[in-house]
Write a structure and sequence with these properties.
By secondary structure, the chain is of the alpha+beta class. It has seven helices and 17 strands. The two termini are 22 Å apart.
Length: 305
């Protein structure tokens, strides 16, 4: 579908917020999620809805509400429950397109290749929202937001490689190449920070964001934090059983740093894939987390650079 670029995206005083986690072993979304929820109305203007996606294998639990996250009993319940997952996505909405309704509340989800695909976007793409939907019936938008149209377009681009895989997961580098090409088109329409998962990997595309210190629209649009540690199993130690330590790798993505740790700012047009808490470059090869922790250059797929 041809899309007409916007010469200069409209600056906004605030934008939606994204958060995602990928880990080697199941982990709980606790402190970071709580901080993000406070941004959703209590400490920020993002009062127009929130959504969470927790993966369990190829399927996911999707929770969404068109109300402030900071005032949501459901959000508070989820924080108390401490649901464990290896892959989770979160979106706090500041509405720019589409009514305040469940149908326009992110993340959005679709099935493809026997897996649930989840997408959340931060930014404005006005011309995309104004265009009539021209997607296959399997990926038709339910709401009227620009973000859902972007997701439907991405799924349309990815469908051929998934259909050709005959029930298997397409090669990671192949998926990255398709996403990079589509992300380049989205950036021509406006800020296009997005997080997307096909249950096998988490794909993160960073673009521009309105910066709080001067109100200018520029990178970074997303930040990455990797935690690498070894943990023991205390419940077994209490029973008198000694077990080898368990390695845990966790990668966090957020629109703004949520802790005082050293978050890595991602550049405009950068695209990375995360799986089991580890980073993967444009060729689909793993980047050892120790290299990232050592502040060595992080190989990124330069989406359209």
């Amino acid at each position: 579908m041809p899309i007409k670029p916007v010469p200069s995206p409209k600056d906004t005083d605030a934008m939606c917020e994204l958060f995602a986690m990928s880990s080697r072993a199941p982990a709980t979304l606790g402190f970071s999620l709580e901080r993000l929820a406070r941004h959703g109305g209590a400490e920020g203007p993002h009062r127009d809805g929130w959504g969470l996606a927790f993966y369990e294998g190829a399927d996911c639990l999707l929770l969404r509400e068109p109300r402030p996250a900071s005032e949501s009993p459901l959000m508070q319940f989820m924080e108390r429950q401490g649901l464990r997952t290896k892959l989770g996505l979160c979106h706090i909405r500041l509405a720019t397109f589409g009514a305040l309704a469940l149908r326009n509340t992110q993340p959005f989800a679709r099935e493809l290749g026997g897996r649930m695909h989840v997408f959340a976007h931060n930014g404005d793409m006005p011309t995309l929202a104004d265009q009539p939907a021209r997607y296959p019936a399997r990926f038709s938008p339910v709401g009227d937001s620009d973000s859902e149209r972007a997701f439907c377009g991405l799924m349309t681009e990815l469908a051929p490689i998934w259909d050709a895989a005959w029930g298997k997961v397409p090669d990671l580098s192949t998926r990255l190449a398709v996403i990079a090409d589509y992300a380049r088109e989205l950036r021509a329409l406006g800020p296009a920070n997005f997080i997307y998962s096909d249950s096998d990997a988490l794909f993160v595309h960073a673009d521009r964001r309105t910066q709080p210190e001067d109100g200018q629209l520029r990178a970074p649009g997303l930040y990455l934090l990797q935690r690498c540690c070894w943990r023991t199993a205390p419940e077994l130690q209490d029973a008198g059983v000694n077990l080898c330590s368990i390695r845990q790798d966790v990668a966090l993505i957020a629109s703004v740093p949520l802790t005082d740790e050293l978050w890595e700012p991602l550049g405009e047009g950068d695209l990375i894939a995360l799986r089991d808490g580890l980073c993967f470059g444009a060729d689909g090869r793993q980047v050892e987390p120790e290299r990232v922790a050592g502040r060595q250059p992080l190989p990124l797929a330069q989406a359209g650079h």
